[in-house]
Write a structure and sequence with these properties.
heterodimer; A: 340 residues; alpha/beta; Rossmann fold; 12 helices; B: alpha/beta; OB fold (Dihydrolipoamide Acetyltransferase, E2P); 3 domains; seven-stranded mixed beta sheet; five-stranded mixed beta sheet; Pyruvate dehydrogenase E1 component subunit alpha (chain A); thiamine pyrophosphate (chain A); pyruvate (chain A); EC 1.2.4.1 (chain A)
Chain lengths: 340, 461
Amino acid sequence: MAARKSAAKPNVSPEELKQYYRDMLLIRRFEEKAGQLYGMGLIGGFCHLYIGQEAVVVGLEAAAEEGDKRITSYRDHGHMLACGMDPNGVMAELTGREGGYSKGKGGSMHMFSREKHFYGGHGIVGAQVPLGAGLAFADNYLENGRVTFTYFGDGAANQGQVYETFNMASIWKLPVVFVIENNQYAMGTSQKRSTSTEDIYTRGGPFGIPGELVDGMDVLAVKEAGEKAVAHCRAGKGPYILEIKTYRYRGHSMSDPAKYRTREEVQKMREERDPIQNVRDLLLQGGHATEDDLKAIDKETKDVVNASAEFAKESPEPALDELWTDIYSDDVPQGDAIDA
Amino acid sequence: MATEILMPALSPTMEEGTLAKWLVKEGDTVTSGDILAEIETDKATMEFEAVDEGIVGKLLIEEGTEGVKVNTPIAVMVEEGESVDDAATSSDSGSDDSAAKAPAEPKGDAAPGPQEIASKVPAAAASADWPEGTEMKQQTVREALRDAMAEEMRSDANVFVMGEEVAEYEGAYKVTQGLLAEFGSKRIIDTPITEHGFAGIGVGAAFGGLKPVVEFMTFNFAMQAIDQIINSAAKTLYMSGGQMGCPMVFRGPNGAAARVGAQHSQDYAAWYSMIPGLKVAMPYSAADAKGLLKSAIRDPNPVIFLENEILYGRSFDVPVMDDFTVPFGKAKIWREGSDVTIVSFGIGMQYALQAADQLAEDGIDAEVIDLRTLRPIDYGTLIESVKKTNRCVTVEEGFPVGSIGNHLSAYIMQNAFDYLDAPVINCAGKDVPMPYAANLEKHALVTTAEVIDAVKAVTYR
């Protein structure tokens, strides 16, 4: 199957197009800043940047309705920004500060927002897939018409629990969109070396789950595919798979020597397929925005990101007694054996 | 030549069963594979097939008879030409026969098995768990667990049960018997055999606002799912800065059953009790099984609920109350004593109580504490008891290295060192995979004799 491309005359308003540009740019600038802060030692541990993949979450968020849920792996900063979480709270979590979404106790890989229906941020490859189906199970049980976007990568697509979940999601007709963000490398292992099938979306076939391949560098194609998938789920027809071919420009994490692909390969994607540049061209060529308009958006975005970095540096570290909170939802004594 | 047909053992823990229905009558000719009878075991109703061909000479046990012991003759087969009278006289089972025909006890009040000690347990009248004078009824642990789930499902529409064979089969160990009929397939959900997947779906459903009760057919199979239990269920509240709790129960039989070998016979009490974010209950009696499971379902945290296959069929007094619950973190003193503290939980209690009975005959007065929950642990009750008796023996079936007993010993040492007159002794399962052979298996588990020896050691007798 050829990857879905956007229609020649996409059904979006200039305002919507500008919004996608803004949203994707925010993710890119945010991630660049995060990379910078990591280099300065302000962010620790693992930090997986989303640069290059922005069109995936922005396109799918454009297809979502209020109340729909999303859950993903540890490459999660883009998902949080795209669903409207506050950049200050995300950045402050990256720096491990009190003002972070998890009060500094989660970090880059473990962030959540009940308010925005963002259910993490999960660090174990593939574990979010049954969790996402479980969220959809709850929606189905509660008959509330909501859909869950369950994101995972081409690497996670080889975990057994993904197929356990496909099976149950299909027999119980759960309203879940399985989004395979195929950035073509599971850490340093290319899809060719790790995956028996070329088209991962076809793996839903034996479970009776329809799927399609989508050009993930084309935000409008992603949005169209997302709308189709969501309509399928909301109609009670069960799960849907979108394999979205994308590309990450940066390493798997911050400590990636990138020996597994050539500099030229990355450069070619950046120059020819960049999702943000694509929308920029559409806006300019369609006469929907001037260079000055876009410069203004660039500046606004930079300001938001710089402010988030400032907030993340200024926010204090969590108080030491935070060590002992949020372990149980009720009052259960901790550490008795040590301090009694 | 006439041959006897014996009551078959149809499950690893079956000691007796109900002869639910005869499908043949005297004089019928049967061939190998014909169904002779329906027999209800502790786990299911099963069809019992003929092994050889012959003629049904005599049915020795009436259909509907309960409590028929395994290996009791239930029918006599004769060959062509042989008379039923010949058959009757050829049966040498006069005494067995009458035993089998003796009126069976009412269901739910099964006669004690060889290891049974339920009948010997001290009357639980002096309990802080229910008001004095509360009416009591005898119930098996299995029935108590079922009632706990049913009661909580009636009062909260968001409680549901999922697992392998929980609905149409009514539970591999019959714990969910009757629930599908009452609550329907939306709330009693058969899953495929896919522990990792359905544990994760259960956790996700809890994140999504439901209160799942996830049954593992046994906790041995939960090892396939342990990443979702530990990494997703237990840690998310903390990792989300308190935003996302996981109100759910993982339950099922834990520990050794009988003769099922190393992969099906492991006690996970110490494993799960290590994890902050989980609560862990491991009841012994039916009343505690019921009261703790109701508390577990209401608990806003993920709870590991460790049951025991051998205890399922045991009967205990259960208070007749509209809403009986047992709080977590509160131990139960089964027997007060002054010479030594024996502390245990779950099926370990059977050794603790048996040992205490026998020690009493030797003039040693043991206090027996059932922790009931392992997270949180009621350290206060334990320490108070040790301060009184100055000696302590811990009892559990699990492996000895990194055991609950090890932890309790350390705790006692740090918090009541000056009160100890002897080192704490841990009685645990042996440091070996569970063997299959009956004699080896018995020895691999903790034994009452070992508990008695340990008590004598700490009391210098």
